[in-house]
Design a protein that fits this description.
Blueprint lengths: L4 H18 L6 H9 L3 E4 L2 H16 L4 E3 L13 E5 L6 H13 L2 E6 L12 E4 L20 H22 L3 H6 L6
Parallel strand pairs: 1-2, 1-3, 3-4, 4-5
Helix pairs in contact: 1-5, 3-5
Length: about 190
């Protein structure tokens, strides 16, 4: 394959299309239900996954949900009726596991997005949303994505999260305009 930007980009898009095509039609239903019905939502992810989780938090805020990013100074406590949503693409997150323990003790529900649903961290969750994409847990050997390390999972997160937002928007009776009205004016 030529190492041109268009050729590499098309190969990456093919990899991403393969991930999306592998998603069952109802793959996100449990997560969507949990997000729509949670009192408060606390979101956690590390590294590049954390960036995708922050992007989702922003969109959930635009939908009018009470959402917070773990480690921000203004995160309120969570408890019964609330949701902790953790990203653990490779399936093992020491900090995620600790946060899940705190959330469980407080009575909150836990959701995990991962590519490795049988791994340690997803096994601690009430809701597991699986995005079947390459992460650093399986980025070696044959048949790997043109994208390095966990980039395919992280890119799929961004795309699939935006689709989840569209489904939530309909479920919550929101519109593009009501979402826009919540966008910051401090930029």
């Amino acid at each position: 394959m030529p190492e041109t930007i268009p050729a590499l980009s098309l190969s990456a898009l093919d990899d991403l299309a393969g991930v999306v095509k592998a998603l069952p039609v109802d793959a996100a239903d449990g997560l969507i239900e949990a997000l729509a019905t949670a009192g408060r939502i606390a979101i956690y992810g590390a590294g590049r996954e954390g960036l995708q989780m922050r992007g989702l938090a922003m969109r959930l805020f635009h939908l009018g949900l009470d959402v917070h990013v773990v480690a921000d100074m203004t995160v309120p406590p969570i408890g019964p009726g609330d949701l902790l949503f953790v990203s653990s693409g490779p399936g093992a997150s020491n900090i995620g596991d600790a946060l899940i323990g705190v959330a469980r003790k407080a009575g909150a529900k836990v959701a995990v997005v991962t590519a490795q649903p049988e791994a340690r961290t997803p096994k601690l969750a009430d809701i597991v949303f699986t995005i079947p994409a390459q992460t650093m847990a399986d980025d070696r050997g044959g048949g790997v994505s043109v994208l390095p390390m966990g980039s395919l999972f992280e890119t799929a997160q961004m795309l699939v999260f935006e689709i989840i937002v569209l489904k939530l928007r309909n479920r919550l009776g929101e519109t593009a305009e009501t979402m826009r009205a919540r966008h910051t004016n401090l930029e």
